[in-house]
Structure to design on (407 residues):
């Protein structure tokens, strides 16, 4: 009996040993994989797709603490579809392409304007593509955008692609747009998709001179005043009607989107100085509560009312400025209210009247005004968003940033 038990345990150990080392000889071994960290989609001269794959070493998909820059390589291939491009690239490099570490998906403006539903559906259907991968629409070619993505403060390109959207939480000049959210919004009947607006920093000073230096937030990607070699930048949003690009949002309009969507923790904004004409104050504002959204249907027309509340601190100081005076702070708070109300209102009417695309998902609030889902469907929100009217109220409490006071 003991010998039978002993043989049984020996067989179990052999099986465990074989299973443990099976992966070393499997064709899916990591050494046989080509790890893609970014993909770019352009239109070729033959009206096909030009798909760029950015690869990195398999050891570079996570930060190991190395102080050395992680090398990457970029290959571009022309094909009729994503699947064919991957198949051709597998043949060319002699390894199996793996998309499970793909952090960034870039579409050229030209391709996005034609419609990208086929590409989005294909990527969403691929189990390797993570829904958290960011999606960018580039004002230059997708290939150029990826080529010029240079992580100056990061060793790993994968780490750079993970963190570059974090600035949206404290600037509001871009947003965390993922392919998962894009796919959901594309098939949703109460919202529309958006993507990060990308480009390459411009060295043409003439194109930058039109941007008011007091209003840097009016810029977009490829319009920054960054003094450096050409590098990829992300500033603003690309907005869609279903799968087609229909417009762009500037920095301040993107901030408006984030305020309404409760996606910004705080932001710096320049508001008119109530005591000096043609002068601005830099104020850092923090939302104190989530933006309140209420909707009504009045005579068949959507009426959307928003309420926002902020606390603020003055960042720009001038000699002899008495920002500790409560009356002056009240005037500054009032100036903040009027200015933010104006930029939010302009943003809302632009998305409704010009683009007719509901990227803030007001449709989910409007739907509550209907008794049944079929009643809401018959209302045809996708086309009726352009009929909306808005009322925006802002309540701001601004304080001085003096750390030292008179004693």
């Amino acid at each position: 009996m003991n010998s039978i038990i002993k043989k049984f345990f020996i067989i179990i150990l052999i099986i465990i040993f074989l299973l443990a080392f099976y992966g070393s000889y499997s064709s899916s071994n990591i050494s046989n994989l080509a790890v893609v960290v970014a993909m770019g989609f352009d239109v070729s001269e033959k009206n096909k797709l030009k798909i760029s794959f950015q690869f990195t070493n398999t050891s570079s998909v996570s930060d190991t603490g190395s102080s050395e820059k992680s090398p990457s390589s970029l290959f571009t291939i022309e094909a009729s579809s994503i699947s064919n491009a991957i198949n051709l690239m597998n043949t060319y490099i002699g390894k199996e392409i793996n998309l499970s570490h793909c952090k960034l998906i870039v579409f050229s403006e030209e391709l996005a304007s034609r419609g990208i539903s086929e590409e989005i559906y294909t990527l969403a259907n691929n189990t390797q593509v993570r829904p958290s991968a960011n999606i960018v629409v580039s004002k230059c070619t997708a290939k150029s955008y990826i080529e010029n993505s240079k992580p100056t403060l990061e060793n790993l390109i994968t780490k750079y692609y993970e963190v570059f959207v974090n600035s949206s939480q404290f600037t509001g000049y871009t947003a965390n747009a993922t392919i998962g959210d894009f796919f959901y919004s594309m098939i949703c009947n109460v919202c529309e998709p958006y993507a990060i607006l990308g480009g390459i920093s411009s060295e043409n000073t003439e194109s930058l001179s039109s941007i008011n230096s007091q209003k840097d937030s009016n810029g977009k990607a490829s319009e920054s005043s960054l003094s450096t070699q050409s590098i990829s930048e992300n500033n603003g949003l690309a907005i869609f009607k279903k799968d087609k690009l229909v417009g762009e949002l500037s920095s301040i309009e993107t901030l408006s989107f984030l305020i309404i969507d409760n996606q910004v923790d705080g932001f710096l904004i320049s508001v008119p100085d109530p005591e000096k004409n043609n002068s601005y104050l830099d104020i850092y504002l923090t939302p104190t509560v989530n933006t309140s959204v209420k909707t009504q249907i009045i005579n068949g027309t959507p009426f959307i009312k928003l309420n926002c509340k902020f606390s603020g601190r003055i960042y720009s100081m001038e000699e002899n400025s008495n920002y500790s005076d409560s009356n002056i702070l009240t005037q500054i708070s009032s100036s903040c209210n009027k200015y933010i109300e104006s930029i939010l209102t302009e943003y809302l009417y632009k998305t409704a009247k010009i683009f007719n695309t509901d990227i803030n998902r007001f449709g989910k609030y409007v739907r509550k005004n209907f008794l049944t889902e079929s009643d809401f469907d018959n209302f045809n929100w996708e086309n009726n968003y352009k009929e909306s009217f808005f009322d925006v109220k802002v309540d701001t409490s601004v304080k001085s940033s003096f750390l030292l006071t008179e004693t």
